[in-house]
Specification:
This protein is an alpha+beta fold. It has one domain. Helices cover about 20% and strands about 20% of the residues. The chain has two helices and five strands; from the N terminus they run H-E-H-E-E-E-E. It has helices at about 5-10, 25-35, and strands spanning about 20, 55, 60-65, 70, 80. Strands 1, 2, 3, 4 and 5 form a five-stranded antiparallel beta sheet that branches. Strand 3 and strand 4 form a beta hairpin. The longest helix is centred in the N-terminal third of the chain and has 12 residues, at about 25-35. It starts with a helix and ends in a 10-residue tail after the last strand. The mean pLDDT is about 95.
């Protein structure tokens, strides 16, 4: 897990808005969309690998993946939060 002090220093590379760690439910929903083939990054590339975590931009529009405890803070790697297909309700 990322250190809270590190997360507090990070910002969106596009807008410079603060980032926050996503709740486990959001990470699970994004991983569900990835597994279903319904998640693309800002470059339009279908995401194939699940994420270990997400850093969500303050406005909630984009989240950046965390893989192996490394935040991937590249604009094109951002995951748009709108349009993600949510898992079915149990």
């Amino acid at each position: 897990m990322l250190d809270a002090a590190l997360v507090a220093m990070l910002a969106c590379p596009e807008t410079r808005q603060p980032l926050r760690l996503a709740e486990p439910e959001l990470v699970a929903a994004v991983n569900w969309a990835i597994a279903a083939g319904n998640a693309t990054n800002r470059a339009g590339v279908t995401i194939r690998e699940p994420v270990d975590g997400l850093l969500v931009r303050d406005d909630g529009v984009v989240a950046y993946p965390v893989r192996e405890e490394i935040p991937v803070l590249l604009i094109d790697e951002g995951i748009p939060m709108s349009g993600l297909v949510s898992p079915p309700c149990p």
